[in-house]
Every structure is written in C-alpha cells, then in structure tokens.
What does this fold into?
Amino acid sequence: MIGALIALSLGAPVVEQAQAPSLAFQAVRSQHFEVHYARSRGEDQLLAAERVLAEAEAAWLPLCAEIEYFPVERTHILLLPDDGMQGWTWPSWDWIVLSAHPGGTLELQRGPMDPLRLILRHELAHLLHLKKSKWLAESVQSVEVSASVWSGRRNTRVDAGLEFAGIGPYWWSEGSAEALVINAGLGEVGAEREATLRTSLTEYRWLGEEWRTRFEKQDWGDSERSYQQGRAFVHWLEATEGLRIAELSDDVARTGSVTRSLRRLTGSTQEQLVDGFVAQIDVAGRERGTAGAELEEHVKPTPRRSDAAEDARERTGVWDLWPTPSPDGRWYAQHDRGVVRVERREASSFAALGGDGPADLDRIVIPVHYGSRFTFVPGEQAVVVVGEDALTGLDLSVRNVSRLVRVDLSGDETSLGTESWGISTPRSLRKRSTPVPGTEHAWDPAVSSDGELAWIRVSEGGGQLMRGPLSGPFSVVAGESGHWWRTPVFLPDGRLIAIHRVGDRADIVEVHGDRALTALTSSLSQEAELSVTPDGQVLFTADLEGFRDVFSLDPDTGEVRQLTERFGGAHTPAMTADGDLLFVETTAHGFKAMGIEADALLDRTVSDPFTGHPLSTAVLPVPDYEAVSGRGLVPWSITPFAHVGMGGVDDLDLVGGAVVSTRSWHDAFDGRLTLWVGEELGAATQLRQRLGPLDLRIAALHGISERPVNGVKLESSQSEASVDLGLRRGPFAVWTGGRAARVGFRDLGAVGLAAGRVSLLATEVSRGGLMAEGVRAELSAEVGQQDGNRFWRGWFDVSADARLPRELGAAWRRHHALLVGLHVAAADPTSHPWLRPRAGGMGRESLLGSVTAFPGYPELAFTGDALVVAKLGYRLPLGRWRRAAGAWFIEGASLEGMTHVGQAWSAGSVPGLDDGITGTPWAGDVGGRLIVHGTVRDSRWDLGIRVAVPLTGVPVSDIDGDDVFDVLPAPAALRDELPSPRFMLEFGRL
Amino acid sequence: MLALMLVVPVSAAAQAQPKRSRAPLSALEVERGLVLPKGWVEIEVVHASGKVRGEWTSTGTVEPVDAEWTQHRQVLRTRFGVAPRLEAFAFLPIHQAHTDGFQAAVGDAGAGVRWEVFSTDLPTTSLAIESGFSGASGPEPRALPGRYERENPLTFNGGTPSVWLAMALRRQVGPLVVGLRAGRRVLFPGVVGHSVGEMDLGDQWRASGTVLLQGGPLVLAASPSWVFRGQTRFRGQAVPDSEGHDVRLLMRAEVHVSRGFEVGFLSDLHLRGEDAMLYPIDDGTPPAVHRFGGLVRVRL
It folds into this structure.
C-alpha cells in the first residue's frame, strides 16, 4: 500500500507549533494587509499591530513599483509576541511572520533604525520578489518523485526519492531583497552594511550558498556577509549589465532557473559574472588611520593549503559584544553568542580581550538573551542580565519571554555555568540568580550608582523607558507607540539619558522626571549605543561619514570628540577607569573585542555636526483599518507526487497523487488531504486543532488496491480513523486517543484501539562535552477489540544519537557519534498476529501501530507476544572533501557500523493462520551504512547505502516484505530461506 | 444560427484576469492551448450511459447479447497548471452496469503530465507532448463470456498497469480549432483479477482529431478517434485474432457560462470495436454501445 505509506510519510504538520499554546489571536485589516496579533498578550499588541499596518502600507507601493508586481491578494502578517527577533516569509501563503523586537545584533549589522520597519521591509521585499519569480504555480510547494525496486525472493529493496522545488542561489533571494528595499528608497546602505561588505571583501572571495553550506555557516553574522555580498552583486549587475531585478524575475518565472535566465539576459554564466564581480572589488577605507598593522593582521586571509586550513579559517569567527569593565575594575564581562562571560580581573589587560582568557581565572558564564546588553551593579558584586525563562526556571514552552535577572558574583567558586545551549541552566547558577520582578519583555538594563534600575520594555510597536528601584516597582518615564528607546545610562549625578529613535532618526536625549525630553544631540547621524565613562562623559557611536565610530559627549557643554577611526567601524563602547577604550569592531569573521589605550585614542574635536535638526517625533499615521476575527486559512498548498515501484513477480506499481494542505494564519489549525490514483486508489486526511494547551489530531484514511502477491492478485481495502488528544509541555507530551480500522484482508476485520502515550522529544541535550541529539522516548499502552476479541498491547521506545565533542547546528556530520536505541513491546498472546509487536526492515510505520527497525530482516518479519530489540551503532567520519559538479557538490562521507539484537517470546501458535507463527527466540544482525554527504545548491542531501546481514533465520511470513496486506504463508521453498544481506539505498534531505 | 456564430469576433484576445499569480487564461475556448496555464485548476465530471447492443467480433461486427444491459460511466478528471507550459492531470473512471442486477466498480485510474513544447498567440497554436500512466485500482471480478447476469460479475477495468506517450497539436483558425493527436500506449503484462494467469491485453496505437467551433458561449466539437490494439497474450502466448481496430466519434455541445464554469452534452458513438477473444472490459475492449450524457467543468 504505497500510497498509504506516502500519506503517512507526509503526515507531519507543515509547521511545528510556533506559539505558546494559550495565546488568542485577533486581526486588523487594511487595504493590502491583515495583521494578526496576540490579543491575549495585552492591549499593547494592538498598538504594535497598528504600527505594523502603518509601516506595511507605507512600504507597499514603493516596493511593488520597484519589483513591478502588484499582488491582488492581501498579505497576512503574523505579529509574534516574542522577545526575540523573528522575521521570515512564506510567499505562496502571502504570509509574513515578524516580532516587534530590536533583535540581538540587528542594528549592529543593519544600522540603528526602527527594527520593526527594517524587518518588515526586508520580508515584504522577499514576498513580492519570490511570488513574482516563482516558476512553479504559486500553490505548489514542491514536486516529489520516487522509485523503488525490490525482490521479494531475496528480501532486497532499493528506494530513491527526489524533491523538486524552486530553489535559487542565496544572492538571488537575500541580496535581491536587500537591494529592492534600498532601490525603492526605503533604506540606505549605511555604515553597518558597508562595514560588513567591506570587511568580507578583504579576502576577495565570494560568500555564496556553496560557502554557507559547505562550512555550515548558519550564524546570523555569517548570513549577513552573504546578504551584503549578494546585495552588492545585484547592484553590480544593475550597474554593469543594466539588469534589474524586476526584469530578471520576469524571466525566472518563465525559465525556472536563475542561472539560465542570467545567461539568457547577459550572455554570461553566473560563475563568469561572479568572477567579474570579485575581480572588480576595490576595498575602500583602508586608509583609515588607526587601522595599521593590527588591522591587516586581523583581516588578512589565511592561505588555503587544504580543506583543514579552510576549516580553520572559518572557525575563527568571533561574536564579541559589549566588552565592559565593572566600575570597581575587579570584573570584566562580554557577551558571546547567547552567554555573558564574567571574569575576575585584578587589573585591566587588553592583550587578552576577545580571547577566552587564562583557564584559572574565576569565571561565571550566564545564559542570556542573544545579543542582549548587561550591566554591573555599582558598589556590589553583581550583574544584571536579560535572561530568558530557561534561566529563571519558568515555563519552557513559552519561548523567548525575557526578563531581567540579577546574578550574584560573590563567592569562592572558580567557575560556574556552562556555555552549552542545553535545555536548562545549572542549579548552582540558578541559586545565584534572582529574577527582578515586573521586568517582563525587558531589554538594555542600566543601574545607577545609587541603585536605580532603568530598562527598556519592548511593547506597543516600540519601546518604553522604565525606571525604578533595583527591586522594583517600575514606572514608565517615556514611551509611546512608534517610539523606540535604547541603551539608557545614568550619569554620575543620577540624570538619565537614552537613545530616542523614531523611524530612521536616532538621537541622544535626557529624560526628566516629568517625561520631558531634552535633546543632547539632534542629527541625521543615527547615534546609538550609549555608555558613561568614569568621569561622566557619554560615549556613543554614530555614522558621521559612512563609518560608525565612537564619540564622546560632554553632557554639560555639548562638546563632542571623535575617539576612533576604524576600518571595520566600532560598536558597543565602554571605558575603563584608566581611560582606555573598549569596543568591538566588525571584521571579516565577526565582531571582535578590541582595546585602545587612552593615549592612542584619536580624540579629535568634532565641529557641531550633532545638532541642528529638530528632534523627530513624527511617526507614520495608522491607516484606516477594520477589526476582523483573523480565523481564515492560508491558501491551499499542493505537493504533487509520483511513485514507480517494480519488483517481485509480475509486480509493477504506478501511483500518482497530490498532498493538499492548509493551516490557519496563526497556527491554531492545520490540515492536509492526500489523494492518490493508479495501481492503488485512496484518500487520507489529517487535521490538527489547538485547543488552548491541548492538541487535537484527527486522521482518516481509505484506500483500495489490487496487487499481485506470489502470483495471485489480492484485493485489499482499508478504512481507518483516529482521534488523539495531546498535552505538550516543553519537550514532553502526553497523548491519549483511539483508533478504529476496517482492514479487508484475511480475517483481521474491524479493529478498535484506545491508546495512551507519553513521549519526550528533544532535538539537543548537552551535558559537559557530550551532545545528544534526536533524543526520543515514548511509552505507550493500548487496549482494543478486534472482531469481538479484546486484547491489550504496549511498548516502550528510547533512542538517541550521542556525539563527542559537543557541536551545534549541522556540524554533527563531522563527528564521531554513538547511536543507541531500545524497543520493548508486549501484546496479548491471543491477539491477531498483525496486532502484535513486530520488527523488521527499516521500521516503517504500520497502519495499526509502530514497527521497529530491524534492517537485517524482511519488513515485519520478527514477531512475538513480547519482544525486545536493541540497537548499537557508531558513526565514523571518513573524511571531508569537495567535488563539485554544477549546482551539486559532494562534501564528504561517513560510515556507520551497527548491530541489532532481538529476543522474542511467544506463548503459542497464532489462531487464524494454518501454519502459525511461533516466534523466534533470538535474532540479530550486523551491518553498516555508507553515507555520502552532498549539497544541491543550498540544500544538504545525504546519499546512503545500507547493508545489514541477519545472523539467524526467522520464519518468513511476509514474502514481499512490502505491505501489511501481503500476509500469506510463505511457500515451502522459501520457508527455510538462508539469511541474506539486505541493501537499502537512501536518499534524503537532512 | 451558424451565421450568427460566425460574426461573433472570437479572434480578439480575451482580457486576461490574473489572480494569485496565475498565468492568463483566455475566456474563449478557441484561444486556449493544450496545456492549462500555470496556477489554474480544472475539475471535470463526465457522465455517459448507453444500452449495450452486443459484443464486437474479431471481424468488427456486433454479436447481440441476450440480455438487457445498460452501461454507465462517470469520469472525474482534474488538470492543474503546475508551471509555465507544464500541466499535471489525473482521472478516475467509475463504472456501473444494469443487467438484471446492478454492479459498480472503479475503473483504470491514472495520472500524467503534458508539456507544451511550442505555442503561438492569436491565432493560437499549441504543440504538446503528453505522458502518463494508469492502473486498475478497483476489484476485477472474474467474468464468464456470454452471460450477463446478477451472478456473473462484469469486468470493468483492464487489470494491468499501462504507460503512454502522445503528441498533440491544436491550431486556431478564426472561430475554429483543428486538433490532431497521436500516441502509443504500452500495457504491461501481469496478473489480473478477471482471469487466471498472466495477461497482456496488447499495446495500442492511438490517433484522434478534433474540430471545434465557438460562437460566443456556445462550443460545438466533433472528435473522431481510432485505436489499433495488438494481440492479447495469455500466459505469454499470443491469442489469434485478438488484435483489432476501435473507431469512435465523440461529439460535444457546450455552453461556456464563464471562464470558470462550463456545461455540455455529449454523444459517444462506438462505430467499430474489437474482440480481445475474452469478454467485454469497459476500460479495455468495451462492448458495442453508443453512450450519451453530459459534463460539468469548473476552473479555479
């Protein structure tokens, strides 16, 4: 029943649940947009939705005109109440997801402008560009073609599958979105984009999709370098070839290939054009004064001698942020990719800045919100950070709710915390952590010398400046919709200053107790990133001449002095008691913490460019809108598929069909319908509805087929329906449900099942240097009835891949790994054989229950009233190399050795089958899998060949091994079949 | 009436109505190509019934059957414009027969793709290649030749999978469309439910033509078709005199209410049939029957 298996394999939800389960949504609708917001999060979400409508409507016409595409359908925007930056789009659904949040390093890489505006414009450009250039019909997500060949006589099967989808090179998707926004007059390149591009070009190489996938460059900063090179390439194409994105999009929609369209329109291949782009690179700005030898050392390319050297170069990326000394000079801290490392230092030493420091230094590593700022508490051994709920031990299922946490630094421990991204924080660190009450959705904390705390509450499509005692409560001192506040700091005399930002303008203001503002700067230079020096000067950064540099401001006199002139620009400044400056600089490999001693600072007077432009307070007007329920469904998506199967005796399967799916705009519902015709005919539907914290899943399937088995054509039919209700809590889920089936072969007849299941699913769990991924544990118990006969059954499954050393992301393919699994199952001895625990083959999902993998044996071959199957394997990296062929390239290979051992128990023969199945007391196999890792454009693929040799025979009840309906007693000639190797060719995307 | 239709300016390009990035689809049938434009979905339901006159003999004559036998067939057909110049389609026939009882079954369902390799606009020219497969999805009851009774199930579907490759040309001439189509269908040998042992009904050559005339919303079409089927092979042995020719004339009268909704009547005249030396198989070697019915077509 290939069609049924296809239906099951496609059965996973389209999008995993992205929301906290209890959120209730509402929508507001304007002429071109419908914005869905979390009504239950509070009224400020409506204000945020209004801001999104204002920004979206203002951007619609310029972007549509630039790309020359005016969609008639309304665009839906899901505004996530998420204290982390979110921004992505699914063009065929007319769907943008974003959060009204400043984001970790967004403004350091794109410039300090309204983050909501910046993200929205980028995603809207994506949506319009990708809709216009889509070659496949807009509703087609992909086309899947698969084939299999099998031999029932030798239990051998080969499968291969391909998925075709519209994939374009990285510069095409991301670079075009960036360029469209700029070309439409909705943004400018700015100092930050220029710095990213300038430093990335110092190595005179193209950072395209091949670079990203080969070196697994998944970091935000890595992506940003590709974005900006892509944007520069698009602008270069416009300048040298006269080729606009709108024109190229038109052609891509016809040809389905960016590279082919490039060749058609320019006469050159993409490779030739990229070479031309790289050859003309002239890195401007090298003359900037303080760069010198240190800079050259910093950005110079490592000679490429081998893949290992290339790898080494790629691993040099650092993402230092906010290098900060404590006021008393005893501590030094900096942010590094989601943690704040606080180290004890008796004296400042800049030589080691940016490195890990000596191992024997006292160190506390605190998991924090990615990219967030922190502050020392003056006069105390404590730091205030922006924590996530994982740190405070609160609800894990609600992602990215940030709040301030005070962490005590006193004590004798020499090292605390972990730099791993596990699912929890060590208890020793939690003991030192005290959440600051009333600081939900916090950002940018600052503490004054007399113990006052100021911070930014992200809300209302902007930010509110909050102030109060360190232990609360807090009051709003400034903030209204559309106004953003950043990096508040206290002057030594207790005055509060902060960055005030409206749209593209950012200025430094003093906030008085009565909410009155006094502008300390009022310029077009986008001031940002405040800190205060020990002598009361205000440090800030600004884009004065196309480079972001550090300046100092005397808050009393208004005098401004320029302190740096860096090739990569300068961010997040801080000053020590000795007057030395700490900051981070954009480099070819990330942000690196740097130091300049006091007497080496530029210290140049700036003649009044920071005043003269009145403080901007005008925000975009909110367009007319109406409130709607927002309960609609996204446009239907279609995935056509075709399968050709050949094997056995006189057996040819031809099946074609399509999966049609939809979902609600904010993920409360998703549903899919699978239809297939050909040798088999059937339909299956799967529906999921979120009911508060509960997940309700309903599935139904009906199919008929006639397929030859052992020279006889058998009719089979099946009807199945199931209802499951689940409660999720973090990685855990508890499920209960029932299943009814009518299966038209032999005597199985009608089956009804009631099931309860507890499962744990965790993608990554780390302890120490060990990383376990794909951790899965499930305990299930069922009672049922089959044609009047009651039965019970149950099973327990646990499996994991553990690797050493711990690595993040897709890097697992480089490492040794231990693969373990255990399956224990038992069932009523009087039940029908097809309802009992079964193992064999690759462990495909059976319609009536889980089937355990036992690769050395035919599908479903190993059975009993009770059985245990244990898996033990080891993955050995064989090497990494690069063999390219057009858009394909091979990255390397690894070898997995594995063994399965099983024990089965049976009380007696099986009623209903003349020959009976008595079970096998012991079975085992040994085998391996050779995996070749490859990439097609920017999608990773693995091609694997698996061989498993059974160590003992089992009674063969399933000759074809392909189908739960092929339940015929084996011919005598095959009954005593010798163990034979089984081969499996696998092809799949990671 | 004919004169009235001829003065309707059908050669003017109909205004395109793009929606959700769909490619333009002309409102006029005569201006459409062989491939459904990207993004469009077409669903068509056809029903046809007829009283069986008898079984075809190997010489092309009709041998009457001694039974009241009415054959019905519905076909659900879907087309989807997957990409520019590329269409996917699927079809599902359902059969019923009234003798002294009533029988029903699913026929040979299938799917395929059609690729437009050449086209011109106004007058429209469209050249396409089509490939697809079909297979027996439903039960194949065993039949006994010559007995059409409640106790003797009729056979509706072919029982083995097939694939085909065809080429089609369509050309607009003012309010007229002239179409030609030719192809080869290969039937795979295999075990079938209505016989004992491996069966092969024989590969086919197929050809057909179409003349279509449009006057405003009214469309008239006539399509003669010809099929030559090779010899039946049973357990690997060729069955003598089992090859033959099948000739039909399909005529349609449709009202195109809108771009997205069309209804019509049809007649399917079975002028000559073939005898596979077995028994009538409605999706393979059907009995002699003229069918009449209607169709509904929806485009989304």
